[in-house]
Amino acid sequence: MPGRTWSSRRRWWGAASLVVMLTGGGCDTAGPVTETDAPEASLAVSLEDAFVAVPRATSTEQRQQVEQRLSGIVEDAGTHFYLAIKRSELNQKWFLSAFLKQLHPGGVMFGAGRSLGTRVVSFQEQNGRLFVVDVDDRKRLSDVFDPEVLVEAYPVVTDYGPFNRLRNADQYVLIDPSAGLNRFGVMADSLSVSTRFQTELSFAQRFHPITDGIAFEQVFTGYSEASEPFAVDYLEPNGYRASGTLGLALRRYKEGPGYTPTAMPEQTLYFAGASSFITNAGGWTDTPAMKWNIHPGMKPIPWFITPSVLAIQADPRFQAYDLVGALKRGVEGWNQAFGFKVLEATVGGAGLDFADDDKNVLIFDPDEGVPYAFANFRINPNTSELRGASVYLPALWLVLGDDRFESDPGAFAAARARTLPPVSMSWSGMKAESLCDLNVLERFGDPEAGLASSLTEVTPQTKKQKVEAYLTHVVLHEIGHTLGLRHNFAGSLVYDGTPTGLRSSSVMDYVADEDAILDSAPGPYDVQAVRYLYGLDTQLPTWEFCTDQDRFTDPRCTMYDRTNDPFSFTLADFNVYAQSFLTTASVTNRLNLTLSTRTNQVLGFVRAGTEQVRAYQDILAQVRPPLVVPPGAPAVYASRADELARRVLTRLYLDPVSSRGSIFTANAPTTPQFMAPVMADVRGILFNVDGVRGYAARRAMVDILKQFQTLPAYSALREARDMLTAQLPSLTGEERLQSEDLLARITSALSPYYR
Questions:
Q1: Which end of the chain, N or C, is surrounded by fewer C-beta atoms within 10 Å?
Q2: Mean pLDDT across the stretch 128-134?
Q3: In angstroms, rounded to a whole number, what is the distance separating the alpha carbons of residues 644 and 157?
């Protein structure tokens, strides 16, 4: 959830291009593979299953070269193999999936720990090669046009004596899984990235059976045509070079018994599955919602928590918390929404591989520096049925929760002394783009905000209860994504401010931490949403909903707003900084920057939404002409009010679009209802009706009136010209010089006025 000063321009190249070419080391030559192997020996291999790993002995020279070039960045398990595929299984359908397990440079920051997609494939042997063909049903345009798409090809190994001497060897095709033609496009296809990556070295290792198939790892190193500018920050001096480990799986194709897709509602409440052509419909497509094959009487879907959680649990800082229990509650808490047991969570054993395609894994990373959690999943591209999922959760959530929360007065446990050293973070590189990157740093806000907690007193909680509830909330959110639910930023609109009021209707909202610790179960929206998605109810959710794309059109659809009146909440935040600006003796750069950000947030309600006039009136309420200086205000108040009014109006009309923030950048409305108060303010500042308006503000008003290109603005400029002309003889010194320049600017704006 899925901040900081991140550069996202190339953050996916290490992930998105590495497996454009899954395997191999450059261009392949036609014909069978011939390698220099160690002396032949008998193989203790039984050729019975569809896929069989055939051990191979790599020469000392080859092994030394690989180890030298990989430089210890990715692990060599020492078990290299050929892959034998039963000829009778070649035409069957198989799920071919990929998971980026390790990546250097950058690791999880640059895309590791993510599922890269699934294809439905079959195999064809021709001319000494084994071709991999994408055979999903999505691309069939009509009964006539149903294309076959080649995605990879491997040279067939024919001269490996130890294999050839095995019984039934003639019933198998032997390939080197690290010697493909670099045509496998899971990552590039799913992420629409065209960056080329040239594999230099690659080998396969860790072959092992999984449910309905097999899995193995592909270790690679190579070079991209695009340099990663932040590679050096991750101890990689060559920005073009990357190494990693890819988890690959081949599993027999099957669809869940009785699985029925759910059509996407008009509001996109759910994650979209894979689009498919509607056969014989002229290219029209259908995109259902993705979901599991969940139904009453089913066997619960197992989730495994990585055993790293036990090591973190043993840390003296965190021994007071039930970490396993908190995480399990986040997974299994969704069972109450369904009304029967759907999910169950356990801590995995030491051999748990989070890249295995047949496992759903909550990766609890001991890293205290990664600032976000995220979820991702794997679907059957034919049906959009979810086949598996994973959640990534770093220890930073625990660290900051431990640092942030204390026991409430009256709670039955004293807060223990802090043993946590100050957290030191160095952000450099990227912004992950997953289903959800929940950023822990955004949730803690600005330490200079000066805003008291708006959390009304509720039942006192101990620090232990708060930290555990905090982790549970994060996991509930991410598991909600793996069930198919999108963000619902309208959840907080239900909160009425009362002590027992519901803080949010959805755990899929982004809520403040004080509220997160109160949401330890799916909200009423979540219950309605999953029950409709999974066919348990026929009525769509009735609670308010807005999601990521709505944040660009509706300012009420926002994060961390904690109220049923987002504008008032946003304005109150702005006013805190505005008051500091008006009264502080010395304005810091940080205050200027923060005030600029908060100005954009309030002006978002001016540029879009239904509260445009109210938003404009309220943002200038303290500083518009004629200015009312509060009793006891410091001497700088009037000049600061003039400057703040200038900044707001300049940001609204004159500053470049790039200064307006990243979301709401539209021009201000031009309706008569909106323009009336604006003209009154601009005119009042230009005419200096309260005697506190400076030259800079008045000059800006001339530019704004020129931009309006309206008769009232033209008339105001003419009137200002006449007024200044009459005043000029009585002015002296700096005031006269500034008035002369202002008069010249007005004359220029009027000559001519209309463009």
A1: C
A2: 94
A3: 75
- What CA–CA distance (Å, rounded) separates 184 from 178? 12
Residues in contact with 424: Cβ distance below 8 Å, sequence separation at least 6, in sequence order:
none
Helix (H) or strand (E) holding 98: strand 94-104
Same-domain status, 546 and 400 = yes
Q: Where are the alpha helices (DSSP H) in 483-629?
A: 513-516, 524-533, 566-583, 589-607, 612-619
| Pair (519, 386) in one structural domain | yes
Range in 7-16, 136-145, 221-230 the model is least confident about:
7-16
Look up tokens 């008769």; give the residue.
711
Phi, psi for residue 468 in degrees, rounded to 5: -65, -40
- Which of 550, 435, 545 minimizes the C-alpha distance to 488? 545
Helix and strand counts by DSSP (H, E) for the chain = 20, 18
Please give the Cα distance from 140 to 462 (Å, whole number).
Answer: 59
Can you give the residue range of the structural domain that contains 104?
13-28+50-252
The dihedrals phi and psi of 739, each to the nearest 5 degrees, come to -65, -35
3-state secondary structure of 432: coil
User: Hey, which residues does 52 pair with through a beta bridge?
Assistant: 84
Question: Does the residue 105 lie in any domain?
Answer: yes
End-to-end Cα spacing for the chain: 48
Token pair 């400057």 is found at: 643
Specify whether 335 is located in the same domain as 387. yes
At 490-545, the pLDDT tens digits run 999 999 888 788 999 999 999 988 889 988 899 999 999 999 999 999 999 999 99
| Crossing angle between the packed helical segments 711-727 and 733-749, to the nearest 10 degrees | 150
Whether residue 227 is found in the same domain as residue 319 = no
Q: What are the tokens at 424? A: 């030191």
| C-alpha to C-alpha distance for 14 and 10, rounded to whole angstroms | 8
Q: Please indicate, yes or no, if residue 219 is contained in any of the structural domains.
A: yes
CATH number at residue 493: 3.40.390.10
Q: What is the pLDDT of residues 248-307, one digit of tens each?
A: 999 999 999 999 999 999 999 999 999 999 999 999 999 999 999 999 999 999 999 999
What is the pTM (predicted TM-score) of this model?
0.82
Residue with tokens 């069978």: 32
Distance CA 485, CA 472 (A): 17
pLDDT at residue number 683: 98
Give domain status of residue 131, yes or no: yes
Radius of gyration of the chain (CA): 32
Q: How many domains does the chain have?
A: 3
pLDDT higher than 60, residue 320: yes
Q: Which of 497, 601, 496 is nearest to 551 (CA)?
A: 601
Q: Is the dihedral angle over the CA atoms 272, 274, 278, 284 positive or is it negative?
A: positive
**Is residue 266 situated within a structural domain?**
no
Asked if residues 513 and 439 have their Cβ atoms less than 8 Å apart, the reply is no
Instruction: Give pLDDT, residue 436.
Output: 58
Among 219, 235, 252, give the residue marking a domain's end: 252
Residue 523 exposed, middle or buried by CB count within 10 Å (0-12, 13-18, 19+): buried
Least confident among 51-65, 219-233, 368-382? 51-65
580 backbone dihedrals φ, ψ, rounded to 5°: -65, -40
Residue 163 clears pLDDT 90, i.e. is over it: yes
Chain-centre distance for alpha carbon 428: 16
Query: Does 531 lie in the same domain as 635?
Result: no
